[in-house]
Specification:
2 copies of one chain form a homodimer. The first copy, chain A, has helices at 2-5, 9-27, 36-46, 53-64, 73-95, 111-115, 117-137, 141-151, 156-166, 173-198, 203-230, 233-236, 242-245, 251-255, 257-272, 282-292; strands at residues 104-105, 108-109. With 295 residues, chain A is mainly α. The first copy, chain A, has a two-stranded antiparallel sheet. At the A-B interface, α3, α7, α8 and α9 of A face α3, α7, α8 and α9 of B.
């Protein structure tokens, strides 16, 4: 168990985030290449930082299932970049004036504020298609289908419209759970599953990691809701209270902040339950990290 | 050559258009299924009619290359639906207020006029992802990559931004050719190629059909530009002169209407040149149809 005992979670997160930044830079066309304005807008939003949670989860699941960095790295690397591109495309479209109408993202002007609305719509569309291009280049049709299911109307996009339609209504526990599972959870779970698929995980392993992915996906969004109320502006990088201003359907709104915290902790425990008790690996580290995160 | 002699082009177009309508209805989730508003908006735009040129071309290329309707029809059918969904998604986003700001499409209110801007953005996104889902379900990774290349920044999206950026400038022949090849030509050519790929066409055949696809793709858009000036409102379904009002980069604007007609005719001839002289099949029929179309 020496490998398990020596996991250095923070170092892993830092190194794999750097790897993601490098991959995104490598796979995106340069802003010197035509159409320059579109490539520039795509790069601007994609390179603006962030936790890179989805590709890091994919890498961690890949390695947990026996994939190594030397074993066809292009495959897992392309999948990682694709997952982050999908996430960024969804943020660009979500920030548009007709959607959440946000001026700032990660402390910087949002894509449409910087480049105009038309370019932002197209930059989101372009990241969407480059993501599918990269995923297809892994050679795994199954991974393309997995990604499409996570993004489609029963996944992320279904969650986005439900989220929009729930604005200004008093959400029930069931409704907000359903929104969060789709809007945020589906892509997080798909990231874990696609990482495992790239390492040829067997169906039993895939099932275990699905339980992990579903639970951390929902926990992540519940904690996001809580941070929007209790987070430190300097740490979360935005003014707290924005969900409430937009009358968003959130967990604290539906069941209160204490019960929301309890549910998030329970979900993290459920995610950890697929591992041996006291097992310490990158995936368990990330689950605990999500449970305790401050940004 | 009896098969060749008996091609009934108009009947083929009518029957395959009906097939496309049927397939789209089959592959799209019902508007009774949640998220209903999103499914309804997707259906509204997708079922509003149109020539269904891209899927019809895919089917014609598939059959030309020896694919039959009984030979794994799901494969070519999914590809056909995917191509039309990509086309429709691009129209929905193109019509948005921040883009072309069109109120009418095929005589009906545009998606954002009917359902609001936010739903229109998401409906476009959703058709985009369902298209990739369906293409991946054909089992052909190559076709997914082909589609992604046609849609991406060196294809349709690159053409869309170049088109937008050229508004209000005096376009050169070279610039407008480049815009049209990407904005319209890339997906038309990919439709022909993907149809051929689904029938396992060999590289030589694929090369021939690429020459065909590239030339009819550009010809189609040049004739679209001409119809926007000379077309009959009742036939083309929109007020003529809209390109000019929006100061769009068009062929007539760049080289004059007569030279534009000559170039379109030349391109149709080039497309026909990959077949035997006087060969009469569905693909040659479509090329001539494009050359003479009135809507």
């Amino acid at each position: 168990m020496s490998k398990v005992d020596t996991v250095d979670g923070p170092k892993y997160l830092k190194q794999s985030k750097a790897l993601v930044d490098h991959l995104l830079d490598e796979y995106l066309p340069s802003s010197d290449v035509e159409p320059r304005s579109l490539h520039e807008a795509m790069r601007y939003s994609l390179m603006a930082g962030g936790k890179r949670l989805r590709p890091v989860l994919a890498l961690a699941a890949y390695e947990y299932c026996g994939g190594t960095k030397d074993n066809a790295p292009d495959t897992i690397h392309r999948a990682m970049a694709a997952l982050e591109m999908i996430h960024t495309y969804s943020l660009i479209h979500d920030d548009l004036p007709c959607m959440d109408d946000d001026d700032l993202r990660r402390g910087l002007p949002t894509c449409h504020k910087k480049f105009g609305e038309a370019t932002a719509v197209l930059a989101g569309d372009a990241l969407h298609v480059v993501a599918f291009h990269l995923m297809a280049m892994t050679g795994s049709n199954k991974a393309v289908i997995e990604l499409a299911e996570a993004v489609g109307t029963s996944g992320m996009l279904g969650g986005q419209i439900a989220d929009m339609e729930a604005e200004g209504t008093k959400p029930t526990h069931e409704i907000v759970k359903n929104i969060h599972k789709r809007k945020t959870g589906a892509l997080i779970n798909a990231s874990v599953r696609i990482g495992a698929m790239m390492a040829q995980a067997d169906p039993l392993m895939l099932d275990r990691l699905t339980t992990y992915g579903e639970n951390i996906g929902l926990a992540f969004q519940i904690i996001d809701d809580i941070l929007d109320i209790q987070g430190d502006e300097k740490i979360i990088g935005k003014q707290p209270g924005s969900d409430s201003k937009k009358q968003k359907a959130t967990y604290p709104e539906a069941i209160g902040i204490e019960k929301a915290k309890e549910e998030a902790a329970l979900l993290v425990d459920k995610a950890l339950s697929v591992f041996e008790e006291y097992e310490d690996n990158v995936l368990t580290f990330i689950a605990r990290f999500i449970g305790q995160r401050e940004c």
